[in-house]
Amino acid sequence: MDKRQTRAFEEFAAESGAELLRIAILLTPDPHTAEDVYQETLQRLAARWSRVDNPKAFCRRVMHNIVVDQTRARARRPHELRLFDTGEKIDPRSTDPHHSVELWPSLRAALDSLTVQQRTVLVLRYFDDRSEAEVATLLGISVGTVKSTTSRAIAHLRDFPGLAATFTTDSML
Amino acid sequence: MPATDEDIIRDLLHRYTGHVRPPASIATEVVARQRRRDRRRRRVVSLAATGAALGTAAAVIAVVPGQSSPASGPSSASGGTQPVMTLTADQRVLYHLSSVAAGQPQGQGRYAVMSTEGNQVKDTSVIDSRTGSMWSYQEGSDGTPSGKGYTPHYSPTEAQFGAMPTGLAALRAALITQWHSEHKAPTPVPSPRKKGPTLVPRPVSVSDNDIVFQQASDMLWNPLVGPGLRSALYKVLAAVPGVKVNPSARDSTGRPAVEIRRVDNSGLPGGRSDGVIYATYESPATGAVLESTATYPPGSDIVTPQNPRGKGTVVDTTVYLSVTWASAVPADPYRG
Fold first, then answer.
1. DSSP code at position A125
2. A106 and A171 both lie in a single domain
3. What is the ipTM of this complex?
4. Which domain does A151 fall in, by range?
5. A21 near B CB under 8 A
6. Average of pLDDT values for B245-265?
7. For position B76, what pLDDT does the model report?
8. Quick one: pLDDT at residue A91?
9. Inter-chain CB proximity B310 and A170 less than 8 Å
10. Domain limits of chain B?
11. Based on the structure, what is the number of domains in chain A?
12. Nearest-CA distance from B14 to chain A in Å?
């Protein structure tokens, strides 16, 4: 990378880094894995910077591919027991800390119980605010698949223990 | 207050990641790491593409034009008559290093596990001797695992290195052939990025001696390079004008070392790198590389975590801490 490319890359990372790390956190089972995925994504972007037309889309696609690879690799290894909480932080802006403390593990567990594709579609649709067509293009699937996957993922979250009350309560207000 | 299921999910996802801020140093570390990889890989040969050329070069080249040095000496593949040679003190050191390297055993095991440290970041690279693919694990400056990756066909394989000529004239010619095969396209190319300007690669004026030093010195770090080729590379380096040798140096960790250095004025495509001093520190006991450094002059636009804006002189260092061999890809050593 020459000077101009380096500056452009660093500006992109400064501008989009937080957003990318948040997506990584939502796509992966723990913060350490998220940091790995985030850094590996930036590394791959840096390696191809001069040839990448749309860095944001590239990062999302790469992130999804890395998560898929990791999920397959994990499936081949003996199951790892989580012996204790890893000290994940809660949202400091939350007005109800008790609610946040209780809900974050449930949301994390609910996301973990989704398939990789369901999880990615959900995150791209509702965190990244991508349209169904954009998600379809990013993941290389049809718009119909995006719709059905989204629908199934939402239904799964609605029924997930610990989140069901959130949906019911909030939806009634 | 969210009203629909979609709104609730949107709210949850944003609420529970709103506090996340990545360290600003990650991007800089990524750039620095990429640059080290580029530098290490740029001159590592793509033997598959140039295999035929190598064979031709080995068969045809018998004498290196303009060389009155040991390049046409006793180990030449041409098998010609031995000229009378007078080695300089620097060349004698390199020839001794060559004989030390030749006496080392070939690594046993499929995977070379190489621990390095550079710019306060520790890396462990696992290179598959059969495919050249590399797994890399990284420890961040704060001591926590900070990255890992997999690069297919990162390096030539052990067999490809083993197929390289070890006669000095043939090896020198092969190194030059490889370099030219990797730097074929100096023509302007339009930027693939929509709003970016047209990228015009900087013309490179590089001499054969620049090429040979670059190729040879950057091959030595690779643990897949066998004793025969390593031995020949030291002799090739001994024949390159401008090479300075310090037999009683120490690397940055204090290990006794033979320092081999040369000022490179060829410049690099895409960046101002004139007058870069490349140095490599070898173990006098084994001929293995202990450390490699590149000292970039002011204005060379080199960015590191310690020098984020690329100002002033930058010393880019990679310390080779250990090389071991394994029959399987080891787990991430930086995970507890």
1. I
2. yes
3. 0.79
4. 95-173
5. yes
6. 91
7. 40
8. 42
9. no
10. 27-77+87-119+158-184+201-326
11. 2
12. 6
